[in-house]
Amino acid sequence: MIRLDHLSKLYSGRAVVEDVSLTVETGQIAALVGTSGSGKTTLLRMINRLVEPTKGRVWIGDTDAAKIEPHLLRRRIGYAIQGHGLFPHRTVGENIAIVPRLLGWREAEISARIDELMQLFDLDPAVYRDRLPHALSGGQQQRVGVARALAARPELLLMDEPFGALDPVIRAKAQDDLRAIQRQLGTTLVIVTHDMEEAIQLGDRIAVMDKGRLLQFAPPSEILTAPATPFVEALVGAAERPFRLLSLSTVDALREPGEAPGTPINPDTSLREALALCLWEGRAALPVSGGGIVTLAALQARAEGASR
Amino acid sequence: MRFALPPLSALSPTGLLFAATGAIGLWLPLVQFKPNRIVAGQGVDLIAALPGPAGWAVALGMAAILALGLAAGRGLGLRLGLAVLGLGLSLFALGLAARGLMPEGNRMARVSPAAGFWLQFLAFALMATDALARLRPGIRTRAAILAGAVAAGTGVLASGWLDRTSVMIEYAARAEMFSRSLWQHLLLAFGSLGLAFIVGLPLGIAIFMARPLRKPVLTLLNMLQTIPSLALFGIMIPIFGWVAAHVPGAADLGVAGIGPFPALMALFLYALLPVVSNTWVGLSSVSPAVRDAALGIGMTPAQVLRQVELPLALPVVLAAVRIVLVQNIGLAVIAGLIGGGGFGSFVFQGLNQTAMDLILLGALPTIFLALVAGIGLDLVIETLSRQKHRSTP
Ligand SMILES: Nc1ncnc2c1ncn2[C@@H]1O[C@H](COP(=O)(O)OP(=O)(O)OP(=O)(O)O)[C@@H](O)[C@H]1O
Ligand SMILES: [Mg+2]
What is the value of pTM for the model shown? Predict the structure, then answer.
């Protein structure tokens, strides 16, 4: 079990994470979603103290994370990130062995663990164990990254957009595999994602964040049926609900005069895609090529009309 | 493939360059004859310099080699062989000319290599390196070739064939000082490199970890680097002279205004910028994701530095070793000016006495050392970066 207790992080007086409390039960998956810059990564990194909280506490089981030396704490917690962060000068086997070595496991034990994990992640040890990471495909590298995070059988695994760099097909498979392996090992998992579909598919509970605040922390079904705020509703809606009207009309229909930064979108873009863009990139308006803009407010107004 | 014969019509552009260089070399005087070591001499060309028909034979031989080199795409191995033969011929001619021209029992006269010899030698050396570069030999082969070239050079000198040439006569008169200078020169170059690493590596790590230090340190080192070398060596004299006179115990430790100590310090200061900046660049080039993951899975910052950042920075740091070593072998010549020893002593003595041969006695081995060090370190760096990719399928 892991419990975040009124966690806040301030950077030069500005709250990047503000008063977040939540509990993830042992063996459960919590998916952190929210727009870019909403503080997901900061929240995750406060759990293993890559970022020190300004206020609040992190409890892992009944230990206060602040009371353990950061590197010793991190050896108990798996950590996998986008772009995997494998050591390019170490072989696959050596990469997976890092934490067990730090913990002083015996060599035979380490070697057995490497083979076991590689098999679990569908990588033939005979073929891949002695390769360097650059001689692997992106999907394989990502799996090694997760295998490395799980090497020392951590009770808790933290992942920051681990599938962010993968193409959609491999990504779906990677999600399925992760879910299966997580269930099999019973590891508690906190995963940050940009992708509401991914959060719904993986999460036992979803934490929706906006501007450093936790808006809702609930099972996916509840998030879908009883969104706590219009923001959550819009976020969920953009990904999951059949916005027929939004999908049917194009940006052209809501075009209004004005200027907005960024690359202009095509006037043929559907309203649904435009809304998704606004939400994920945290923008109030998008420029439309050929002149004019489309605003988040207009899109949300249309979406509300559509969902009635 | 190597020995496939191409259409003869095609002319190799590089072959043309080598042939032109060599032809001018054949035309210019092979050696200079001087009644004594400091007067201006008189040029003697190849035909006249060698006894009897030997001059013609050598000239024709060289011309034939240069002409064969003209045809593009001739077997590279053949080209290399021809070039080596050409190098041998030019050394043979030089030795023979010196033997023939030196009057028996005359200890004052000198026969020095002149423009003709240098250009011939250059043409064949270029031809050889060109062929070698195109052959793309593996690392081992190149190491063997380097060793072979060093052995061959030493062998030629040891054989005594060139003993009557001016440079070798200067050498014979100073054999003991020469080997002392060699050691001093190596000590200056490697010693300053070692010092630069002892100080520069931690400094590079420090400016990598402590951002505010970066600018002042790099600016200072950059400024040092822009001081002209002669001036820097000159500045050392009063500074360390003062230190030796006023700091108790300093003089006993070898600190002095002139001699090897200030020279070592000047070289060390020059070496510092490449070492510090390459260490910093190498460390900063490590991907942030790798660093983040290393910390995130529980390595201490010291472990991240030792096991991840430094190994990944190694190729860039080694590049600094190469820069510094080659640079310092050359710059160490200036140590001769402030009594620091090394091959520079010959160069500056020679300049004082306007004795060109003595200058060459200092300059030639310096060039040779720099070349060998540069090529040797390239081989080391390549071997290491190969190893890094050893498991590429
Ligand atoms: N070290 C730091 N110093 C100052 N501000 C920071 C620092 N780290 C993050 N921030 C700011 O905190 C806010 C939240 O950042 P964070 O990386 O947690 O967002 P995120 O939700 O993970 O975004 P994304 O989805 O783009 O990864 C951003 O506005 C960011 O600029
Ligand atoms: Mg993030």
Answer: 0.78
